[in-house]
Amino acid sequence: MRNMSAWAITHPVFPLVLFAVLTVFGIVAFVRLPITLNPDISAPFVQVTISEPGAAPTELETQVLQKVEGAVANIGNVKNITSTATEGQAQTTIEFQIRTPVDRATTDVRDAIARVRADLPRGIQEPQVQRIDIDGGPIAYFAISTTGMTEQQLSWFVDDTISKRLLAIAGVAQITRSGGVSREIRVDLDPARMESYGITAGEVNDQLRLVNVDAAGGRAQVGGSEQSIRVLGGAHSASQLGDVRLTMPDGRIARLSDIAEVRDGVEEIRSISRLNGRTATTFAVFKAKGASDVTTLHRVQDELAKISHEAPGITLKMVFTTVDFTQQQYKSSIEALIEGAVLAVVIVMLFLRDWRATVIAAMAIPLAALPTFAFMQWFGFTLNQMTLLALSLITGVLVDDAIVEVENITRHMKMGKSAYRAAMDAADEIGLAVVACSATIIAVFLPVSFLGGLVGQFFIQFGFTVAVAVFMSLLVARLISPLMAAYTLKPHAGLRSADGRIMDWYLRALRWSVEHRVKTLVAGLAIFGLSVMGLALIPKTFTPDADLASSTLRIELPPGVLLSQTAATSAQAYEILRRHSEVESVVESLGENEDGEVRSGNLYIQLVPP
Fold first, then answer.
1. Strands, sheet with 278-279, edge to edge from the N-terminal-most edge strand
2. Which residues pair with residue 253 across a beta bridge?
3. Which of 403, 409, 423 is nearest to 345 (CA)?
4. C-alpha span between 354 and 494 (Å, rounded)
5. Would the CA dihedral through 532, 534, 540, 546 be positive or negative?
């Protein structure tokens, strides 16, 4: 790289075009980069769901789960296997090691299930293998209310209209409703009537499963063209289902309503949602992995505004979000980056005392930082705490090489050389030193990216961002800074004068240190010892404490409790929380979990912003 500067000075077009293109790519990448709180550090999860209507959990454990676990246990990079069995459904979740490609993991699990498919019971439905793309908990909770709908209609509006439209938004992984009810046609069999007809509940169930279904009916030629035929047998109301004809064991025909009471109703309530202690219908928004927290929430809010406009009777309110803290962290990091850049420029101006030289050195910051955003996008990084910390940390480092180049050029100009000649000689003189300095910084930070485990997932983006930014600053110092100095610097009295008072003070301190070597050495050792002691006293944590302006309280009761008992315990917790003035709102999401139990719940607490 020693001859790069001379080549850039004599061929200015190529380096200028190169950095112009990189800068444009960097600006575009900066606008498009996802904004997240932390890097994507979650391990891949794949979920296998197998349904067998009517099967007991013990049967599913022995006949399904054991065989599924044995099949997936032989897959490489498997970290944990978690299985649950409820009535009629078996579910296995496989957690893979960090950095395992999720597509490969999903394919391996699907192939493993296919190999044992013949060993599973014949009555099961087709196994469902899917990867879990949800990134963490919900990024926002919304409460919905209306005066023109029943609770059943409002719940269906959330499940059918809101969920479908929000899931079509890029970055949204899942919408879950809490509270409300779901419509259900209930069939209450009358044992006495069934006995008089000689039919059992199992036979009634089998016949209903056969006739109460919409199915394909083949094709037919209608009006000179081929049309698909579909047999519509599903009942849409309680009266239609009650009119379904059943064949009795003795050959008689009877309607379902003859042996049972058929009525419209709602399914058993297994979950409750409350907002500030009052029953409410809420829904949570989960974002996909790698998506931007801020962009996803803004898209969701825009779509909900359209829905509210189309349905005037609907009122939607965001009652909980984690995105506000993410935005605050992002703004704070960008402000720190800008402040650091401004202070670096001020210091450069203070020492160089030449506005042209200051501009040349200061140009290294945007010319090195902006192309770094393009590389971050190519690497699949996001604007998170680690990458923004890396850029803020090395803001001063980005300008170091350029300062050394420009300062040496001005030193040669003090000898009476022209700017062009000074740039050629000075750049060649310190080229090796500048390259060695940048290479040392890269050698220190780049290995951090190859740490293993969870810590490595945090620092992989940090190390690569620092390395790329420092490398780009080296290119700027070797190509752009000498080029700009050769064609823009002008000799003046300030360049030929002495180094100034600051340098005089420094030289006096340096002479004293050399003359009093023992005192200087003792002072250095004392400072080093105090530094080691201070390091031992500093508290150590994996991540620093942060004021999220929100919190989550999880409650869990003993097995076997009723939903009403869970709700009563949650209400007591809410009464304690509402006494604190810092609490702005509390969303309670209680009831059925992935195990089918109703003994747990979460309270999402939104605090007053600081």
1. 278-279, 271-275, 583-591, 600-607, 550-556
2. 247
3. 403
4. 8
5. negative
Nearest to 131 by CA among 94, 83, 176: 94
Distance CA 187, CA 201 (A): 11
Cβ proximity of 550 and 598 under 8 Å: no
Per-residue pLDDT at 522: 93
Tokens representing residue 504 in the block: 């005089």
CA-to-CA distance for 123 and 89, rounded, in angstroms? 12
Provide the whole-model pTM: 0.68
Q: Which residue has the tokens 């050959």?
A: 251
Q: Which amino acid is at 42?
A: S
The one-letter amino acid code at 494 reads G
Predicted confidence (pLDDT) per residue in 262-307, tens digit = 777 666 677 788 878 877 788 888 888 778 888 889 999 999 999 8
Contact 320, 141 (CB under 8 A): yes
> 272: left (phi > 0), else alpha (psi -120 to 50), else beta?
beta
Confidence bin at 203 (pLDDT 50/70/90): confident
Residue 168 in contact with residue 160, Cβ under 8 Å? no
183 touches 287 (CB < 8 A): no
pLDDT over threshold 80, residue 181: no
Distances (CA, A) of 322 to 273, 329, 399, 441: 19, 11, 36, 35
Q: Confidence class of residue 71 from pLDDT cuts 50, 70 and 90? A: confident
- Residue 232 binned pLDDT confidence (cut-offs 50, 70, 90): very low
Tokens linked to 46: 């794949």
Instruction: Tell me the average pLDDT across 447-452.
Output: 80
312-348 burial, b if ≥16 CB within 10 A, otherwise e? Answer: eebebebbbbbbbbbebbbeebeebbeebbeebbeeb
- Name the DSSP class of 44: P
DSSP secondary structure of 131-199 = E--B-SS-SEEEEEEESSS-HHHHHHHIIIIIHHHHHTSTTEEEEEEESS--EEEEEEE-HHHHHHHT-
Structure confidence at residue 226 (pLDDT): 62
Q: Which residue has the higher pLDDT, 248 or 136?
A: 248
Given a contact cutoff of 8 angstroms between Cβ atoms, the answer to whether 179 and 281 are in contact is yes
What is the predicted pLDDT for the residue at 39?
77
Per-residue confidence (pLDDT) for residue 228, from 0 to 100: 57
